[in-house]
Amino acid sequence: MKWRTDRFQRPAASLLTAALCVLLSGCQLIASSPVELLKAPAMSSSLYQLREAVTHYLPQGAVLTNPNKLPDNGVAGSIFQVDLNGDGQKEAVAFYRLQKNGFQLGAVILEQGNGEWRKVADINELGREIDRVDFVDVTGDKASELIVGWSAGETQSKELFVYTMKGSEVSEMEKIAYTEIAIGDMDGNGIPEVAAMLLEREKLEASASLYSFADGKKKLLHKLPMDGGVNGYYQMVIGKAAPGQNGIFVDVGIGSHASYTSLLVWNGGKLKDVFSQKDDMGNVMTFKDYPGKTQDINADGVMEIELLKIPPFNESSSLADMPWIHQWYQWDGKNGLKWVHDNYYDTGVSYRFDFPETWRGKITLERSKTGGTDGYTTFYYLSANRKEKAELLTIRYYPTEQWEDMKKEMEKKEIDFVELDTVYGSKTIAFLPERPTNLSVKSLQEYNQMKLSKKDVQERLKPAYY
Predict the structure, then answer these.
(1) SUPFAM superfamilies annotated for this entry (predicted)?
(2) Burial class of residue 161 (count of CB atoms within 10 Å of its CB; 0-12, 13-18, 19+)
(3) How many CB atoms neighbour CB 170 within 10 A?
(4) Of 41, 198, 308, 328, which residue has the fewest beta carbons closer than 10 angstroms?
(5) What is the separation of C-alpha 100 from the centre of its chain, rounded to a whole number of angstroms?
C-alpha cells in the first residue's frame, strides 16, 4: 500500500495532527539532518503524512524509539530525513522496537516518488537500544551512508553497521564491534574514516582501530593496542588537534574517579598515541583527579584537553569539595601541551566563568559548602608571595523569590551586579567589589590590571551544563 503525501491537505489538518500526536506515543517528532526539532502542533501537512506513512509501515507491535546519540548531537527524534542515494530527494528513516520482544530493534526506510511514500527496506537487528545514529558519506560517493550502532545494553557489546543506498536498493557492509565510535577524516583524503575503541573487560584488553569505507569496502587501516585495565572509555571524538591535522581524542576513566586523555594522530600510515609517556607515578601528562570531556572550549576550531588545578590555600579540601580551576590545553604538535584558557564551573547551579588571561597564576578562590539553595564563590587576587590578597569578583546564587526582593535594594544602593538564569528557581548574581585598601603599591598596580568591568563579567559568565 502506498501513502499519498497530499492526502490530508484540508482545513481539518490541524485537528488531525493534534489527534495523531495524542495517539502516537506522545507525539515523537520528525527530525532532519542536521537534526531539527519540529514542535507540535505546528507540524506541516507533509510531515504529518510522512508520520502516518511510517506508522503504516511499522511491523505489528512496533513503537518508534529514539537513538541515544544523534547526528551532530541534535535533539531527540525517531524519524530522520536525509538523502541516502544522492538523487537530491530526502529519504525517511524511522527507528523502532518491538514491544512484545524487548530484544528486537529495527529501522524502516521510505522513499518518496510521485507524491507517494513507499517502503524500500526494513532493517532488523537484535539489541535493547540504539546506541547511536550518524548520516555521513564514508564511501566518497557524495551521498550520506546510514550508520547505526546497535547495543545489547549499557555494559554489553555494541556493533556498528554501515548501510548504503544505491537507487532504491539498501545494502549492509561488514559490522564493527565497539565500545566508543568517532567519525572523521584522519588521513587527509577528504573522506571520513570510522575510529572504533573496543574494551574487552574479561580479557583486560583494549584497542583503537581505524577503518576506511572508501569505494564501498571496509578496510582496517591500523589497530593500536590500548590499556585494557581501565574503568572505561567514556568519550571518543575526532577533531582538530592542530592546524591542518585531525586527531582522535579519547577520554578514559581510571581508579575511583580519576581520568586521562589520549590523543591518537595519523603518523606514517599508523595511529600514534602522542601522550603515551608516563611519569614516575605511572601517569600520563593529561591525568586529572576527576573525569573531564575534551572539547573546543574557546570556539577556535581546535580541541582543548582539560586538566584540573587546586587553588592556593585549598590544598586541605576534600576532592569532592575542591573548587577546581579548570585549565584547558592544546596539543603542541609534538609530545606536549600548550596552555590556552582557564575557567571555573559551579555544577550545582550550572554556571561557568571564563578567566581573563591576566588572572593566570595570580588568583585563588573560596567557595561556600556545596548544597542548599544559596551559596557563593569569591575570586581573589593573590600576590606572588601569597601574603596579599583582594577580592576580584563574587558570584552568589539565591532562590529567585529572595533575589527579586534583594535586587531593588541593590539598585537603590547603585551596587554593580550581573544576573544570570541558571537552574530553575535560582538566580546567579556576580558582584564587583569596591576598590581594595589593603594592598601595597606594587600589588595594587597588578590588581588594577586584573580587575573586571561589568561588561567583562557579562561576557565571561555563562550558563554551563558540564
Answers:
(1) Integrin alpha N-terminal domain
(2) middle
(3) 20
(4) 41
(5) 33
Amino acid found at 166: K
Q: What does R_g of the chain's alpha carbons equal in angstroms?
A: 27
389-399 and 129-136 strand pairing: unpaired
Question: Which of 185, 54, 148, 172 lies closest to 108 in space, CA to CA?
Answer: 54
Q: pLDDT of 147-180, one tens digit each?
A: 999 998 776 779 999 999 999 999 999 899 999 9
Q: What is the dihedral of CA 49, 164, 248, 189, to 10 degrees?
A: -120
Q: Ramachandran region of residue 419, left (φ > 0), alpha (ψ -120 to 50) or beta?
A: beta
Summarised one tens digit per residue, pLDDT across range 248-284 is 999 999 999 999 999 999 999 999 999 999 888 889 9
Hey, what's the cell of 155? 555494559
List own/partner pairs for 38-42 with CB under 8 A and 24 or more apart: 41/14, 41/17
The 3-state DSSP class for residue 23 equals helix
Write the secondary structure of 348-361 as one string of H (helix), E (strand) and C (coil): CCCEEEECCHHHCC
Three cell numbers, residue 174: 561488514
Identify each DSSP E strand in 23-128 by its residue range: 30-32, 62-64, 79-82, 91-98, 104-113, 116-126
DSSP line for 408-429: HHHHHTT--EEEEE-STTEEEE
State yes or no: pLDDT of 31 exceeds 80: no
Q: DSSP secondary structure string, 274-342?
A: TT----TTS--TT-BSS----B-TTSSSS-BEEEEEPPTT-TTS-TTT--PEEEEEEE-SSSSEEEEEE
Which of 248, 250, 154 is CA-nearest to residue 201? Answer: 154
